[in-house]
Amino acid sequence: MAVQVRRILLLITDLEIGGTPTVVRELATRLNLMPHVKCEVASLSQLGPVGQQLRGKGIQVHALGGRGISNAFSVMTQLIDLVRFGRFDTVLSFLIHANAMAGAASLFFKRGHVRWLQSIQTTQPSPHWHWRLQRRAHKRAERISVPSPSVSRVANQLAGIPLNKFVVIPNGVDPDEFKIDRVRTGGSQVGFIGRLDPIKRIPDLLHATKILGNSIDLHIFGAGREREHIQAEIRRMGIDGRVTLHGAVPRPQDALKQIDLLVLPSSAEGFGLVLIEAMAAGVPVIGTNAPGISDVVKNNETGLLVPVGSPPELAEAIRRVMEDSALRHRLIARAQEDVRERFTWNAVIRQYAALLEIESIEPPVVG
Fold first, then answer.
1. 366 within some domain
2. Is 196 found in the same domain as 128?
């Protein structure tokens, strides 16, 4: 008797460089290595660099060409046709726009013909209309995956989603992919990797850099709408010679090999994938005691946590890690151990397989 092939569609708002697109790329790659599973990816907008990476792996990617409200009907029609004619049995959507579009598309299918699952990846409270939309969208989903307990609590509070509807599946890394060779010689290179967005509170890190004087150099890797504001703050603080804006990097390893310490000063994160990437690479981390980050970093064990919005305390934490070699080496060793225990893809893919009701959950080997 022929074995039925599972057909799974991962739907995401976009495939630009970022934490959630990276999760989708890695999930699709591993699902396609499982027997009797065919996984494809769809972006509501353009193909994007992560879409190019997926196609380079031989994974089929559908770019629906969304441009906001102006062609939302066209995108919806394409999505319905894709699910119907692609004979997908499961759709797992990521992020609010994709969740809302999937929720609307599900109305055109009989219940039980397609499983509709959603994923929420943020604890960011604004814009408020995102949560109002998610309050409606979640009703069309059977289950909702979140990367941390913080996300489920925030989504329960802001969108009224019942806590028993959530399944917590952390983000994952392959530690072997983060065995990197250092290219720098100094021990004073501090880095930020991520979107240049107000929620990241990069000016706090600039203030900490000013407080620390000439003892550190700051490297900012990423692109986003805050770039001009950050440039203006750098000039205003007179730290032009000690801060470098590198722009986006296609691989986090390219940034991690240039720094001695990673700092994530956000006021909220769903998880903070870059934290476990740095931890796996042997780069110590400092984060804020904010939702999402505090689920990943164990204070004084796998990294240091400081209050949100406190540049002096952030500067002191940076100084401690840079000057105390015993602390630095202890944080690095414990962080790498913690990644292997909690955040490897071999463990994470089993949890996704259970959510997707895939019978064979042997961890695939990624070459």
1. no
2. no
Q: What are the strands, taking DSSP E only, across 75-186?
A: 90-94, 115-119, 143-146, 166-168
pTM score, two decimals? 0.90
Cβ within 8 Å of residue 296, ≥6 positions away: 148, 170, 271, 272, 275, 276, 287
Question: Are 199 and 139 within one domain?
Answer: no
Distance set, CA 306 to CA 154, 264, 265, 311 (Å): 21, 10, 9, 9
Q: How far apart are CA 272 and CA 122, in angstroms?
A: 10
User: In terms of domains, do 237 and 293 share one?
Assistant: yes
C-alpha span between 336 and 344 (Å, rounded): 11
What φ, ψ does residue 38 adopt, rounded to 5°?
-125, 115
Longest dimension (CA), the chain: 72
Q: Using an 8 Å Cβ cutoff, are 120 and 151 in contact?
A: yes
Q: Which pLDDT band, with edges at 50, 70 and 90, does 367 fall under?
A: very low
Report if residue 362 sits inside a domain. Answer: no
Residue for token pair 């699952």: 117
Same domain for 151 and 68: yes
Range(s) of the domain holding residue 230: 175-342
What's the structural domain count of the chain? Answer: 2
Structure token pair of residue 92? 């797992």
Which CATH number covers residue 143?
3.40.50.2000
Which pLDDT value is given to residue 112?
85
Q: Three-state SS across 25-51?
A: HHHHHHHCCCCCEEEEEEECCCCHHHH
Residue at 307: amino acid letter: P
Looking at the structure, do residues 292 and 185 belong to the same domain, yes or no?
yes
- pLDDT above 50 for 334: yes
The phi, psi pair for 82, rounded to 5°, reads -60, -45
What's the start-to-end Cα distance of the chain, in Å? Answer: 31
Q: Is residue 106 domain-resident?
A: yes
Q: Residue 365: pLDDT above 70?
A: no
Asked if the structure places residue 208 within a domain, the reply is yes
